[in-house]
Every structure is written in structure tokens, then in C-alpha cells.
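Re: zinc ion structure - here you go.
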Amino acid sequence: MAKHVLQQTKSTSGICRVCLCTDEQGCAEGCEWSDRAHTLCSACDGLTPAEMKTKRDEAVADLTLQRGMLREELADLRGSLAQTQQRLDFARRHPI
Ligand SMILES: [Zn+2]
Ligand SMILES: [Zn+2]
């Protein structure tokens, strides 16, 4: 399983394989790519395997949280879209 993840991330350029930061969303403390393939950033370079694992777990938990918030936001947007549609339908059904 771990091997599979490693292989998968190896081929993905532009996402740090430890903290999952990207060109668009770099580490809070600032970072740059440490390897030519852009799969390890300077904030994670030199960490011990145990530290890398902790950092990866935190990043995954963070992203999971973020995904949940984005989903809620989308639900909100869908909600106001439905409301707008409802008002338009009302206007169509009830001419002045
Ligand atoms: Zn990193
Ligand atoms: Zn980084």
C-alpha cells in the first residue's frame, strides 16, 4: 500500500510527496522545490521518515477538512441557486 502511494506520487510533478503543497499553495513558512521532479519541497527536505509520516498525516487531515468545507460551500451555492430559481418561477407564475 505504502509502496503504491510512493510510486503514484513519484510520477506526480508539482505536489510535494510529504506535505502535499503545490506551486499555488506552498507551505505557510514558504518553500521551494528541492528536487528537479518537483515532488519534494524545501520544508520537507531533510526530515526523518517518521517526521515525514507525521507531516503527511497532518496534510491529509487538513485537506480532508478543506474538502469538507468546500463541499458545504457548494451545497450553500446550490441552495441559493434553488432559491433564485424558485423566485423566478414565482415571478413567471404570478405576473403583476
Ligand atoms: Zn513539502
Ligand atoms: Zn512546501
